[in-house]
Amino acid sequence: xxxxxxxxxxxxxxxxxxxxxxxxxxxxxxxxxxxxxxxxxxxxxxxxxxxxxxxxxxxxxxxxxxxxxxxxxxxxxxxxxxxxxxxxxxxxxxxxxxxxxxxxxxxxxxxxxxxxxxxxxxxxxxxxxxxxxxxxxxxxxxxxxxxxxxxxxxxxxxxxxxxxxxxxxxxxxxxxxxxxxxxxxxxxxxxxxxxxxxxxxxxxxxxxxxxxxxxxxxxxxxxxxxxxxxxxxxxxxxxxxxxxxxxxxxxxxxxxxxxxxxxxxxxxxxxxxxxxxxxxxxxxxxxxxxxxxxxxxxxxxxxxxxxxxxxxxxxxxxxxxxxxxxxxxxxxxxxxxxxxxxxxxxxxxxxxxxxxxxxxxxxxxxxxxxxxxxxxxxxxxxxxxxxxxxxxxxxxxxxxxxxxxxxxxxxxxxxxxxxxxxxxxxxxxxxxxxxxxxxxxxxxxxxxxxxxxxxxxxxxxxxxxxxxxxxxx
Length: 473
Fold this sequence. Notes:
Helix content: over 70%
Radius of gyration: 26 Å
Mean pLDDT: 86
Shape: globular
Distance between the termini: 96 Å
Largest sheet: none
Number of strands: 0
Number of helices: 21
């Protein structure tokens, strides 16, 4: 009889996972599951530094709520016994308890126990564990959308780890900081942190960390449209994950290839091929992963496949895929998730093409609320502008259109986005001109012209100057 390569116990040929240790037995793929990496690769991934870091990655996948509660109860009993006996309480107990609450998605209790852990570790002068706690605090604040707090705690952790020369963990912290700046659209900072992590991993010959850092770096390169470098990174990553028999790395590389060919806009068939291949592999091993991990792998596949079918005018298929993407995000999210904003916006665009204007407005506004909550004011203004255009062009409700345009304008002017402000001012001027409110139209045209002059858009300056002259005459 065959034996499990992980625990050595007998296994049956037809088993997809070992009944003794719960690890996957992938026999029908040329690639197998990585035995060493703890975390799947997401976009971008945040790295925990907890005390279980070197333990089996499937701890966090197969553990059940009742098992978590039993472990919490056992820790509480230990804490109570030590308190009664007057013994010192190690910070590791609070850190483990926090990790368990995090797995239950009970973030307030996870935070509470982390604070207790930090206090005890400081008393023990265990700086390495203090750094771990600050990193975990950063991840929880990131989950909650408190990005300033997340950055603060990641930096606290990074300072300690730099002093300890723990390069492996320093690289993870640099990636975590890159992730935060990526989420708040500070691409320069995000790129710098990812690149620093990548370079540090190269310098210390930490190949696995180098690959993971480059995988995160790809997300910034999409937005910078550096497609040649993305191709080089993905080709190297694909070879690495195949050699290491890392099924999660393989899936994520397939997804990144699918996304690459979509954003390049040159080969949607190739994009479709990679995304569907990723879903096929996920489906093959779905019995070996939690619903939570499965959803984190699937959501972007569904989103970009939906976009492809939207381009192909198969709106029914596109809508179903967008809804599957939304459902996947809501499985692994904690509260609201900024990813919902992107999906909801895609649904709104779809409903416009279907002629369902009421739904389009509803979904644009839902998307706007998500981006606003997570502090993405630029996106919030963009969506307000889109809603205003719908009211103007489809509903013909000029009053509501003006209201949304003015709200978007206020945000853009506060951000000093001159081109976007000029476009809205120009449109508002045209609206008031049609309403025969010439003086109001003139003031908007003049403000728009000033912004165009600031960005040296001579064509638009000349166009507005002509409109202004015609109104002055």
